[in-house]
Amino acid sequence: MTTYHVLGPLAVRDGGTDHTPRGPKIGKVLALLLLRAGEVVSVRTLAEELWDERPPRTAVTTIRTHVYHLRKALDATEDGAGALRTEPTGYRLSHLPGPFDAHHFTRATDRGHALLRRDSPAEAATVLRTALGMWRGSALAGIDPGPVLTRHVEHLEELRVRALELRIEADMALGRHRQLVPELRGLVAAHPLNEWFHARLIDALHRSGRRSDALRAYGAVRGLLDRELGLEPSADLQRVQQEVLTSGRTPVVAAS
């Protein structure tokens, strides 16, 4: 069975055989068609992705050539025959020609979210870990995305952060505060302006019996927000700080 991957380097695999198209432009065309499967991707959109606002005179011919090679490659796979259709204004994958990691990830994240809302944090954490395990690096790593794919990459990376937030919420509901502290420190370093991650770090430190460390973490994010944005901490952060100061217990704020 042929599988398609964008959660990391673009890859097309059939068992142990690599069928990833060679060449940066043909890779962009395939990625765009996969991410918009079922929709018509216009020639104009493909030209914008491949050459931004300066397409060459041969743009239409070049796109046709890329599509021709892609069609031949897809038609040679088990499920891809006839999938790539020519439409009046562009091209369309009428169906996904094989399992696609971005769709599996999105469905698993939605399932994990639903389980969490049904008060099944253990099962939710397992499902969300599996979803996050589908990532093999940054979305479309190795491709220099044009303006259209850039928007898709940003969307996928936002979904990844969302899945992380949900999995952390599930783990905190299971009382795994000590285990989460190192991961949360890494996440606030990688996403310094994500106040939700900071709030969960402060909460995890406090619930691990590290009250002074929790207060230092609050002071650090407060200073960062003031320097970078001229803002006070969010209501969520202030609420968590208040809990530390009063040694009370409040529910973990959901990543909704």
Quick synopsis:
The chain has 256 residues and is mainly α. The protein is built from 10 helices and 6 strands; from the N terminus they run βββαβααββααααααα.
Structure in words:
This protein is mainly alpha-helical and 256 residues long. The chain has ten helices and six strands. Among the domains are: 2-93, Arc Repressor Mutant, subunit A, CATH 1.10.10; 177-256, Tetratricopeptide repeat domain (Serine Threonine Protein Phosphatase 5, Tetratricopeptide repeat), CATH 1.25.40. A hairpin with a 3-residue loop joins strand 5 and strand 6. The mean pLDDT is 93. It is 59% helix and 8% strand. It is elongated. InterPro entries: AfsR-DnrI-RedD_regulator (IPR051677), BTAD (IPR005158), OmpR/PhoB-type_DNA-bd (IPR001867), Sig_transdc_resp-reg_C-effctor (IPR016032), TPR-like_helical_dom_sf (IPR011990), WH-like_DNA-bd_sf (IPR036388). Residues 1-95 bind DNA. Keywords: DNA-binding, Transcription, Transcription regulation. This is AfsR/SARP family transcriptional regulator.
